[in-house]
Amino acid sequence: xxxxxxxxxxxxxxxxxxxxxxxxxxxxxxxxxxxxxxxxxxxxxxxxxxxxxxxxxxxxxxxxxxxxxxxxxxxxxxxxxxxxxxxxxxxxxxxxxxxxxxxxxxxxxxxxxxxxxxxxxxxxxxxxxxxxxxxxxxxxxxxxxxxxxxxxxxxxxxxxxxxxxxxxxxxxxxxxxxxxxxxxxxxxxxxxxxxxxxxxxxxxxxxxxxxxxxxxx
Length: 217
What we know:
By secondary structure, this protein is of the alpha/beta class.
């Protein structure tokens, strides 16, 4: 078993949390990237005891960035849609994230992520449907190819996709194709599109995330 990931914690502790969100950052970032969002949502949820766990990905070489090492959940080989990836690195991160999931005790545990982290939230969440309450994917995409199809639904798990229509890194088309693929696999995802939003998160999206979490908690 790979070693555990380091992480930041916000809100309630593991033993008292009613809702936990495991939030995965994007390529080249770390858990601090969503610290402000985590703090804001935990405060807004009071008096309910909410908890955010923000892990830091391991540092690995990334092919599309000329092999430079950086925090990444997996190696991206080409900027195709779906992404061409090194599946061994995907599998390693899956195991690390699943280890974090097993440690959480809240009655509702959500997997969420941004960009590459969103891809991992979908990847891990769809394989662990009985362990989580839902999946949030911000500016992300499904990891799939002929050898790695979308897992079949074990239940009607909530899946929320959120994406800006001016995203220059992960085009809106990637989210739309992921939405279609999930629908074809008999899931019932939602897709919220934000006008004039690039590869980032704005205040309206954060509010929508909070409301989505409340709805499914």
